[in-house]
Amino acid sequence: MKKNILFIDACTRKDSRTRRLAEAVLSHIDGVVTHLKLYDESLYPVDENAVVQREQCVSCGSCESDQLKYAKQFAAADEIVIAAPHWDLSFPSLLKVYIENVTVIGVTFAYTEQGELYGLCKAERLIYVATAGGRILDESFGYGYVRALCRRFYGIPVTESLCAQKLDLVGENPEEILQEAIDEAGRRFGDGILYEHDELRNAEAVSSDADGQIHRLN
């Protein structure tokens, strides 16, 4: 049976360089990809009402609720790839909202009787992919945060990151930098075979802002 790969796409741009790099990673991993495009989802910050509803659903044990669908999907994945452009020393806020929705006691993590955390997620590995127009000065706000969640909450034993930096600095060659990262994906995750995932074809995202401003396509 092929692996169930969850691709969490936090890229807002149609021509996202982060998504391009993540798809290069996925091309070296065999499995069935579920492409979760966060900007196409109805994701909201977890408020008091949401907490009450999902606690009731977890206690019920048989409820199928929108409050739990992201957490259940995350917990069931065999492998997880996150594509998150490096914004404001971290990642897009929608990814944080998604994380709030998947960090659910009784679904992705639980406590022992002694109060110790343990993970309930099936995945053996999570790969965090990012690009940055400048330099990533401190990964603890982005990849480091996700890595800590995997280790302390979700029980995902292996986390890796792949990043292309300095794509918009004067004097740098962005295509060359990105291609080096794509080549690194092949060395780190490849086995000499390239896989095509139909689930990633014809992927669309917002390509321009309503105000017409120009932004980096990370």
Short description:
This protein is 32% helix and 17% strand. It is α/β, with parallel strands linked by helices and 218 residues long. Helix 1 packs parallel to helix 6.
Report what the structure shows.
The chain is an alpha/beta fold and 218 residues long. It has a single domain, classed as Flavodoxin domain (Rossmann fold, 3-Layer(aba) Sandwich), CATH 3.40.50.360. Helices cover 32% and strands 17% of the residues. The protein is built from 6 helices and 7 strands, in the order E-H-E-H-H-E-H-E-E-E-H-E-H. It has helices spanning 17-26, 48-60, 69-76, 93-102, 143-154, 174-189, and strands spanning 4-9, 32-37, 79-83, 109-111, 117-119, 125-131, 158-164. Strands 2-1-3-6-7 form a 5-stranded parallel β-sheet, with helices on both faces. It has a two-stranded antiparallel sheet with strand order 4-5. Helix 1 links the parallel strand 1 (4-9) and strand 2 (32-37). Helix 1 (17-26) packs parallel to helix 6 (174-189). The longest helix is centred in the C-terminal third of the chain and has 16 residues, at 174-189. The chain is globular, with a radius of gyration of 18 Å.
Strand residue percentage: 15-25%
As a percent range, the share of helical residues equals: 25-40%
The N- and C-terminal alpha carbons lie at a distance of: 34 Å
Mean pLDDT: 89
- What does the radius of gyration come to? 18 Å
The main β sheet shows up as: 5 strands, parallel
Domain count: 1
CATH superfamily: Flavodoxin domain
Shape: globular
**How many helical stretches?**
6
| Main sheet strand line-up | 2-1-3-6-7
Q: Would you identify the CATH architecture?
A: 3-Layer(aba) Sandwich
The CATH top-level class label = Alpha Beta
In terms of structural class, how would the helical and strand content be classed? alpha/beta
Order of helices and strands: EHEHHEHEEEHEH
Number of strands: 7
